[in-house]
């Protein structure tokens, strides 16, 4: 009889023990960081599981991960970023300074200063000055947020996070050993939060409030009034705001983008962004963290940030060296075109979703590249929850969506809409027939 794999393992172990190389004693597993084992879900893990379930007879349409580079041709000709990188690569083979290449830090400082100046809310507010020394270059926005949370972490502390949210904040908080408290983004209020809920969640151990604007996953672009309300809460609590603005400037359909740093005179702001979304090069891993602290109350935080930047690796020299060229040309035409196309993507998706009774959208996205859709499971035979919906949809129709439970929203799904119109229409068609087959 052919040996099973189990047999072959045990016979080879016996052989080894005859040679005195190993014993047959049961082995103890080597320990590891328990915090990592407690993290049961990650977006990438869930996506991998869903991708494996695709119907081989249909090409996959991904409304899952928000990677604009996949369809970058559709969004028009970008500036020749590649040329900038090629030029830079000739001169930058050495280690760079730990906080980033000075010319690149300067370019980011100028960029942020201009964005804030352009959106200045009230002429009476002091204009924000950001300089090179306020900017730290990071490996994507991801490292910027991980750095910020590690720097602010203290035993027994908690961070106020939006729900639905962005899963990396949860894992970064958990790894840093701080608690997560969730304030709700409310579909009935165009996904703005209830300021009194944020206040009621906070206590003396609260370390920061995270605000993602324009918002992933809801597509909201928060009003300056709402952002000011949050800044006032932070001021009263004497804590900073972590402003994730990776979709900064990506607004449409009547939405406007107001940078949180406009309110830095009320409470200090860590502005986080990257080249990944607006410039559509997520694989380049170039992000930044900007400390906006006109009151000068983050001196110790700044020291700690410099320390962690001295320890951690930064982005590749070649990409850093290309940053001034990439940011100096605002390339208005390209960005305006992207925004217009994103708006038409929303139109197409909304028209399609309207035909599907079991799916409900509360408000049209005015920013970012995502929308949250509620699933009425009572209308769909055999669908218990969002993961069920995502998995069976993939199995039958090869349409990939992100189940909301990974974002803290059971029975919702997040849809990425940054893809060509014909693909969006096809995705809607497939979702329509999927739901029709199960309609109660
Ligand atoms: C994509 C994304 C990030 C991560 O950006 P990278 O530059 O790819 O690391 C952070 N926050 C939000 C809200 C995002 O959507």
From TrEMBL:
<dbReference type="InterPro" id="IPR015424">
    <property type="entry name" value="PyrdxlP-dep_Trfase"/>
</dbReference>
<dbReference type="GO" id="GO:0004838">
    <property type="term" value="F:L-tyrosine-2-oxoglutarate transaminase activity"/>
</dbReference>
<dbReference type="InterPro" id="IPR004839">
    <property type="entry name" value="Aminotransferase_I/II_large"/>
</dbReference>
<dbReference type="InterPro" id="IPR005958">
    <property type="entry name" value="TyrNic_aminoTrfase"/>
</dbReference>
<feature type="compositionally biased region" description="Polar residues">
    <location>
        <begin position="1"/>
        <end position="12"/>
    </location>
</feature>
<feature type="region of interest" description="Disordered">
    <location>
        <begin position="1"/>
        <end position="25"/>
    </location>
</feature>
<comment type="similarity">
    <text>Belongs to the class-I pyridoxal-phosphate-dependent aminotransferase family.</text>
</comment>
<protein>
    <recommendedName>
        <fullName>Aminotransferase class I/classII large domain-containing protein</fullName>
    </recommendedName>
</protein>
<dbReference type="Pfam" id="PF00155">
    <property type="entry name" value="Aminotran_1_2"/>
</dbReference>
<dbReference type="GO" id="GO:0006572">
    <property type="term" value="P:L-tyrosine catabolic process"/>
</dbReference>
<dbReference type="InterPro" id="IPR015421">
    <property type="entry name" value="PyrdxlP-dep_Trfase_major"/>
</dbReference>
<feature type="modified residue" description="N6-(pyridoxal phosphate)lysine">
    <location>
        <position position="277"/>
    </location>
</feature>
<keyword id="KW-0663">Pyridoxal phosphate</keyword>
<feature type="domain" description="Aminotransferase class I/classII large">
    <location>
        <begin position="80"/>
        <end position="430"/>
    </location>
</feature>
<keyword id="KW-0032">Aminotransferase</keyword>
<dbReference type="InterPro" id="IPR015422">
    <property type="entry name" value="PyrdxlP-dep_Trfase_small"/>
</dbReference>
<keyword id="KW-0808">Transferase</keyword>
<dbReference type="GO" id="GO:0030170">
    <property type="term" value="F:pyridoxal phosphate binding"/>
</dbReference>
